[in-house]
Amino acid sequence: MVQSLRHATPAPSSWPLFACAAVAVALVLVGCAAPTAPSSPPPQAQPQPQPKAAAPTERPAAASREGRKQVGKASIYARKFDGRTMADGSPMSLQDDNAASKTLPLGSRARVKNLETGKSAVVTIQDRGPYVPGRIIDLSPATAALIGLTSRDGLADVEVTPLPAARPGDADGGREK
Prior knowledge:
Radius of gyration: 39 Å
Order of helices and strands: HHHEEEEEHE
Number of helices: 4
Structural class: alpha/beta
Strand order of the largest sheet: 1-5-2-4-3-6
Shape: rod-shaped
Number of strands: 6
């Protein structure tokens, strides 16, 4: 009987290995236990700061659609654009009242006033541009002549005022006389 007990107990040299295995199993079981409730409430979500409103110079499109005036440089369409397709799909005519703006909606109308001469004309925005820094509108040569801007001048300081859209039933389609 003594001999059978000797074989049941591990040899003294394997006790450290057996103890390490038992501790490892205990740690795994403790780690797999259900988590306890946190002692403090979770941190509240911090409100996100609202983005700053863009300066008017960064977003002239929104201001233009609201009827605000823009002041800047006007240029004249080059003659090489005659007959080319504009952004709205119509052909460019140097004799029409068309104009190009990066901010005003296509199809909208605006009054362009030359600040030096005081002359003004109504244009229809049919194209995008100008793509030269500092310029706010490109005018057809016919419209440029109406406000006193010549190809020799090249540029003029102008004020561009968006006009309200035509109302249904207007006899003149919203065009100014």
